[in-house]
User: Fold HAD-IIIC family phosphatase from Acetobacter farinalis.
Amino acid sequence: MIETKEFQGPPKNISPPLTEEVWSFGPVNGSFLTESFILAPNGKIEGYSHPNERSWRIENYRLLILSEDGNLMWRSVEAFKDVKGLINIILEHPFSTNTRFVLKQNPSQKTPVHSVQPAAPTPTPPAPAGLPDAEYLFPSDLEVTPVKIGKILLVGSSLTALYHEQLRARHPETKFDYIPYDFVSTLPESPPSPVSEYNFQYLQIPLRSVLSDRVIWGFRFNEEGFSKTILQDAYSIIDAMLSTAMIYNERHGLLTFVSNFIVPQMNAAPSMYERGSNTDLTTLVQRLNDCLGERVATYKNAYLLNVDSVAATIGKRYILDDLIYFYSHGAVSYQDWDDFGSIARNEPIPSLETVYPIKKDVFLDAIFRQMVTAYRTTKQIDQVKAVVFDLDNTLWRGQIAEHYRPETQPWPRTDGWPLGIWETIHYLRARGILVAICSKNDYDYVKTRWDDVIDPKFLSLEDFSSVKINSIPKAQNIVEICKEFNIKPESVVFVDDNPVERAAVASTLPDIRVIGGNPYLTRRILLWSAETQIARMTEKSGKREETHSTMDRSESLDPLNCDISFICIKSTNQREFARVLELTNEAKQFNTNGQHRNFENVTEFLKNTGKILAFSLKGKSAEYSLVGALYLKDSEIIQYVMTDITFGTKIEETAIAEAVKLLRSAHTSDTDITASIKETPDNTPCREVYLRAGFRETASKNGARQFVLTGTEAPKLPPHIEKN
Assistant:
């Protein structure tokens, strides 16, 4: 308890001694905004600068923190000592009592020297270390669900052998199997473990094998046709080595990541004039990377990983061995061939790191992190479907009503992070991620001034699928945005500079992800996080924004005027397969067993006589790509998924009738058809679908409700839907 009833000015009897401590300050159960929050005796806030927290006082046994304009921002509601004996003061926002921050005693900081006292000399702080390279390249800010990588199959040359040796020691929670692959050769019929045990395989084709040792004789690049021969041969070798190494991918659908080649650090052309030409080995390797990317794209469930970019960001001078080994070796400089000191010399060789510092651990961390984030993307773990942006101090610097008045020029600059965020928005849209605005501002004023503030005019209000600019609490606006987009808050990222607004939204919508405190981090997080990547663009993901921004389901899908089209999928080679897999993993409300599937799982399902009946829908003013799918096997409907944009059209019964017809066509017309529903917290809308279609419920089995349509019964069919 803060004992003093009223206090303004120098303290007398305050308990706890607020002015004698340094505090950590931030949201309850969140990251601290500062570790050096000081309540100075003169009533000012020191050690932390923000317009929301400028001064303080005590009234009626409460600590009050005031904003720059003198309004109350925080008031204390509780003070206690935690298990470590540290004082915690819980603060609440007066107009949003669910929004709570904490002042926590920070004994690691020195007793504050207040501005009213002579300032002690401050030592020069060390240069900031910045983010670790793995985190910088592959941000974890949007991760919610932890992922455990159980087993990885490594296939490749000596560089992959090094990964095997090092990563299994660094990550004992993950098992690693390794198959050497240095030349065009045949892999074992089966990998060391059953294919089903691997999360994925990681393939690294050796650059030296692709280029051959002919390139070591550099003078030969002066020979006419030599470069062309090397390049054409290399393309053929890539094809041959990929074809062999992808055997487990093609036979079993095993998810595969393929490493590209690390490009040499400097040009290797015979002359300056020929740099960038085919006589420059660096250029050849870049073209081989292009070729490798094209070839990998022809395989199902396979993706290229850009290891060259990882090495470039960390610094190839700290990694690549091309200053010691062949240009074409393409490996790292901390392998076991450096046996300095084992042979006597007139002048002893010092350790390699005395002249070429090596970032071994940094590189290995980044490589493993790249694998994990690629896996997260392919499995759509914590996938972001929409990003909602604040305006002031988020989409532009400063406040539109205060800092962009004609009489206050010059206005805040736009170069740097505002411009970067504008471009980010367009790249998110390109991935099918919806973007929206949620701002406490005057809509008409923002609309009138938009073109003045957004200069150059790279962004317009029409680029956003939803715009909420009003005085309504932001959490309420975001709930409405989620309804418009037919998504849940867990699929949304909210970007706002104000920690109070972020905390208020997170308090009301616990599953939403909030960022934006540091504008220098926002673009990187949104563009580089695994959760904002998509594994493969489908027709649906490419048109998601257009659909949501221009379509109103109530207008476009008239239940009395719908056409439905079916397609039976029996192979992953069918072009509709990618959309079906995406739909299966998106569907939560209409998903009869809640199961999400991956490429390998569905491949196995189709190989074992399973098939998928997928369907699309056309209304009077809209045509949708695949909106539903039924997984069928023998005489059973295994799973039924459908997008919620079709709710209310009654096409679900029509699709069941078609599934029954398809199943009976493979048996007899009087075959009993069975189905099941496993109830989940989300799938209420589909729990009665089989009853509506004429099925009868039987005894539950293994926690799932069971249904049957006997051979003497026909499914109920809505009359208003026409089948094409």
Observations:
- DSSP finds 20 helices and 27 strands in the chain.
